[in-house]
Amino acid sequence: MVQLWILEFDETESRRRTMPKPIVCLCGPLHQYLEAFRSCFRPRQWKYFVTVLLGLVECEERRTLSGLLRVVGERICLSGLSRFMNKWPWSPAEVAGVWMGRYRARMTPIVCVEQARLAAERPKRVGRPAKTVVTGYLSMDDSVHVKPKGRKMGGLGKHYSTSEQRNVRGHCLFTGLYKLLDQSCPLAVELYRQRRVCEQEGEPFHSKIEMAVSMVERFEPVPGTHTHVLVDSWYHCKALRKAVQRRHWDLSGALKSNRVMRLMAADGKRTWLKLSAYAALLKPEDWTQVIWPSAQGGQTLYVHCLRTWVRKLGPTRLLITRHSLEEPRPNVRYWGSTDLALAPQALVDTLAQRWSIETFFEDAKDLLGSDHYQLMTATAIVRFWTLIACLLAFLEEQRACQLAQPCSRGEVRRTLQLEHRRNLLRWIALQLSTGHSIEQIDAQWTLSSP
Questions:
Q1: Is 109 helix (H, G, I), strand (E, B) or coil?
Q2: Domain layout of the chain by residue ranges
Q3: Quick check: helix, strand or coil at residue 256?
Q4: How far apart are the first and last CA of the chain?
Q5: Which SS3 state, helix, strand or coil, does residue 249 take?
Q6: Angstrom distance (rounded) from CA 35 to CA 33
Q7: Is 314 left (phi over 0), alpha (psi -120 to 50) or beta?
Q8: Cα distance between residue 89 and residue 83, in whole Å
Q9: What does 26-44 look like in DSSP terms, one character per residue?
Q10: By CB neighbour count within 10 A (0-12 exposed, 13-18 middle, 19+ buried), where does 291 fall?
Q11: What's this model's pTM, rounded to 2 decimal places?
Q12: pLDDT tens, position by position, for the chain (450 residues)?
């Protein structure tokens, strides 16, 4: 009997591992997806590319290079995989361009259908009809990958971790996520280095704001759509607003409580005060109840919305939120948007779209182990992150095929694992039917295992 699951126990824990699967066990959709990237790699490199992505699908332990090789039954050595990640010439930007091109090609006809639906539902009136708008949301953020023992890793610095509420040693990943009609696509990933680290490594320094501005300038949305950029309070600044306005887009995001706003009195007198000071002046009747959308059905919020001028930002649709009117010390948050016509509920719905990039970072870490690497060079780290984003783009494609029955990226990955196991069984059955013995089949994994 062929044993598909092997239980291995050590002194501290028990880990379940699957039998290594050869590349021939790839499911059809994943194989077709990987074929689209052949132009990005030389023939020998493409095999390593497929090995890494298949390993990320199958691996349930730490996603180090050794861990990925343990679950893929191919004759690939660790040193070769290390050269693929560190030295061999291939471009992460070119790989990202392929998956983003596939996304745009897939979404273009969907946008046309949505435009036709909006035009058909548009109320009849005298004069020129209002233009239909399909909005895509571009969220940008960074994520800290903690590496307390990686003292010789390239690009290593000290970054503030919101989860640990302190500065930690590690790497800072910067990227964006584009969401259009409930279908998402990750953008190319970048490594943020502090100025001191750049000076030590002889690399040009780019601040996070400069990286965000560059992303806005380079990004190409799906044709026929309007883009709304979403950021947190760190990125909400004048430089990014100007970059967004040059492209005739909108920007919304959180604001810090010490921002200064202009308050206009009835007699036209102008007063400048901090957002926190203005919020303290509000009375219970100044708040409106709205629903913050979520997968759990929505959360009730109280908001105060007005059009104002925020110093160093310009005209702003200001939104102040709190969870309850009875709290003695309410948890008040502040938001701003360049779209001055948005109603409170519409602005809340827009701001809630930014949560997609938080779940993207969470899946990258928890589902695919984006912080498990033990790579020494900054080049290898960016390439590792790029391949994880490449697989996440495929998982999003598969989720889009199942909109009738919504599922998570983890559920799609488990479906792939099940299909690969069935393909492995079919392959073993074929080997047995052609006269191979169990010992001969087993020897193939013995020779292939690193």
A1: helix
A2: 5-90+402-448, 249-353
A3: coil
A4: 24
A5: coil
A6: 5
A7: left
A8: 10
A9: --HHHHHHHHTTGGGS-HH
A10: middle
A11: 0.90
A12: 333 333 333 333 334 456 777 888 888 899 999 999 999 999 889 999 999 999 999 988 899 999 998 888 777 888 999 999 999 999 999 999 999 999 999 999 999 999 999 888 888 877 777 788 899 999 999 999 999 887 789 899 999 888 788 889 999 999 999 999 999 999 999 999 999 999 999 999 999 999 999 999 999 999 999 999 999 999 999 999 999 999 999 999 999 999 999 988 877 788 999 999 999 999 989 999 999 987 777 788 999 999 999 999 999 999 999 988 887 777 899 999 999 999 999 999 999 999 999 999 999 999 999 999 999 999 999 999 999 999 999 999 998 887 667 788 999 999 999 999 898 888 888 878 887 777 777 666 544 443
Q: Retrieve residue 66's tokens.
A: 């050794």
The angle formed by the CA atoms of residues 243, 247 and 248, to the nearest 5 degrees, is 110
**Which two three-digit tokens encode residue 408?**
């998570």
Q: Which residue's entry shows tokens 């897939």?
A: 106
Structure tokens at 271: 């007063």
SS3 254: strand
* Type of residue at 409: R
Instruction: Decide the pairing of beta strands 135-146 and 226-231.
Output: parallel
The residue whose two tokens read 């295992």 is 449
Euclidean distance between CA atoms 411 and 30, whole angstroms: 15
CB 311 within 8 A of CB 328: no
